[in-house]
Amino acid sequence: MLNEFVYCKRLFYLEWINGEFEESPDTIEGDIVHRNVDVEPSKDTTPNYGVGKFKSITLSSTKLGIISKIDMMEYDGGVVTPVEYKKGAASKVGAWDNDRVQVCAQALILRDNGFMCDRGEIYYDSSKKRISVDIDEPLIKETVSAVKGARMLLKRTSAPAPLVDSSKCFKCSLAGICLPDEVTSLSGKGRAKQDVRRLFPINDDRLPVYVQDQGLYITKAGENLTVSKGGKPVKRILLMETSSVSIFGNIQISTQAIRELCRRGITVSYFTYGGWFYGITTGTESKNIELRRVQFKVAGEPAESLKIARRFIHGKIVNDRTLLRRNNPSVTADALRMLNDLGKRSLKAKSLNELLGIEGEAGRIYFSNFSGMLKAREEFDFNSRNRRPPTDPVNALLSFAYALLVNLEVVTLLRVGFDPYMGFLHQSKYGKPALALDLMEEFRPLIADSAVIELINNGIVKRTDFIIRSGSCALLPDARKSTIDAFERRLETPIIHPVFGYRVIYRRIIEIQARLLARYIMGEIREYPEFRTR
Tag placement on the chain: N or C end, fewer CB within 10 Å? Predict the structure, then answer.
């Protein structure tokens, strides 16, 4: 952490104080490089005046108040030398400043434990060479100052500003969490929005797992999840390629599997057989208590909540209008004009009740024109939105797609550090993930509704894929699987971000929006930029 403090104070804050971390190819490769020294620690760490080495030595300094796991400690006579292993390459002039401070801190710890130490060494795996670092007074002074600075930063209630146009950001595993260019741009302190660099992959190699067939049993086997039926394995899933697990109906999962999923930060969501989302298992919540404290504070201030709620509804209405304009050839100019006017009015609403009234009127116009986006109108007749329970196939599809979307939002919000049950637009009620419902508003038409339109217009689902009893309509298993497939295809669709101009998939955009909301309520950016497709 001291290394990261010298490298980037914001990185130190996000990882050490907020507890945020994201694996990347570089961090995984770094773990591989450390395997040679990550061994069972040596038991005897008393000074030895022969020649040899210890690996994985953990020592601390009460004088400095720091602790370190030293990769390797070589000793020769009465002198010891800490050796730090690094995945990357050395700089053109030798060791990097942050690495020099780290190995100096290790040397100071060794001195405080009775060892003689006048230098350290850093092995850079990419360069295949060691760099010697003299533990001189200027470096000691710099290291002690860094320790004091890191301790002072612990007292802050918000993260330091991100680096501006720094090359350090390119390989940082937390770039997608920090959003350095996006934050500086939206705060008015950085480059233009359209020139923002995309510092994270366009998509995520990890994918969600949906388990639907009744009677299945999920267990852990090494680095895999094993899905079995009747004691026979039917599928193996790599844990490192899994982002979340969703379970529908009567499916069992072992304690060992749940524990491993929690350890890796992979959520387990539970749905009824029919697709009603009712629970989630997560690991230890984010350490970012300050974000949740500010979230509750803002939610308790009607004026501040209204500012954010306006953005949610404005984004939803604009995206509703865009979807109709693109997919309904018979939509009237009056309907589009009214939606445009309602979108503008939403930004000026003076109360939450007024805003909800505007949303209701926009929803009435949108859904009254929804059937015009469906090709199979005779087979899938749709007149208005209804739910709890849905009474026709289109409403059943919409309800199921919305359940998938709210689950994704809950998982994303937990990862960011929010409490998904305290919202700004939707009122918090027992068991209602209000903030998840808030953030999904702008994505309902773009992801859930679009997936439903694709299913119907491409003939993927038929009228026979539904069962209607006592005025209630439900999806049969094949229709649920098809809806999940269509929903996931939509999430994996790459688009040009309308604000920042880079190419990214919808799944990433949902996380970006959640993180931008966090940056807004923490005071890092001037306003929450709702997502509006072009």
Answer: C
Q: Summarize pLDDT for 31-72 with one digit per residue, the tens.
A: 555 555 555 555 554 545 456 778 888 999 999 999 999 988
DSSP per position, 53-74? EEEEEEEEETTTTEEEEEEEEE
Integer Cα distance of 287 and 17 in angstroms = 7
119: domain CATH number is 3.90.320.10
Closest residue by Cα to residue 134 from 164, 103, 171: 103
For 477, residues 6+ apart whose C-beta sits below 8 A from its C-beta are: 212, 213
- Among 246, 263, 281, where does a domain finish? 281
Domain co-membership, 332 together with 469:
yes
Tokens matching residue 462: 């038929």
Q: Which residues contact 224 (CB under 8 A, 6 or more apart)?
A: 236, 237, 238, 239
Q: Note whether 11 and 4 are within 8 A (CB).
A: yes
d(CA 461, CA 400): 14
Measured CA to CA, the distance from residue 311 to residue 351 in angstroms comes to: 13
Residue 117 sits in the same domain as residue 219? no
CB neighbours of 458 closer than 8 A, spacing ≥ 6?
A: none
Higher-pLDDT residue of 110, 127: 110
Q: pLDDT > 90: what percent of the chain?
A: 45
* DSSP structure string for 359-402: HHHHHHHHHHTGGGG-S-TTTS---S---SS--SHHHHHHHHHH
Does residue 166 fall inside a structural domain?
no
Contact assessment for residue 362 and residue 370, using Cβ atoms and an 8 Å cutoff? no
| pLDDT band (50, 70, 90) for residue 430 | low
Diameter of the chain measured on Cα atoms: 90
Residue 27: pLDDT band with limits 50, 70, 90: low
Same domain, 304 and 393: yes
Alpha-carbon torsion 245, 446, 311, 194, what sign? positive
What secondary structure does DSSP assign to 263-323, as a single string? HTT-EEEEE-TT--EEEEE-SSPPS-HHHHHHHHHHHT-HHHHHHHHHHHHHHHHHHHHHH
Residues of the domain holding 217:
207-281
Q: What's the whole-model pTM score?
A: 0.85
Can you tell me the distance from the alpha carbon of 267 to that of 283, in angstroms, rounded to the nearest whole number?
7
Q: Identify the weakest region by mean pLDDT among 15-24, 314-323, 474-483.
A: 15-24
Residue 22, C-beta contacts closer than 8 angstroms, at least 6 positions apart = 173, 174, 176, 177
Q: How many helices and strands (H and E) does the chain possess? A: 17, 17
Crossing angle of helices 477-491 and 506-521, in 10° steps, is 70
Q: Residue 129: pLDDT above 90?
A: no
Number of structural domains the chain divides into: 3
- Please give the mean pLDDT across all residues of the chain: 87
Place of tokens 């994201």: 22
CA angle 494, 370, 475 (to 5 degrees): 80
Per the CB < 8 A criterion, the answer to whether 37 and 69 are in contact is no
| Together in a domain, 16 and 100 | yes
Residue 376 belongs to some domain of the structure: yes
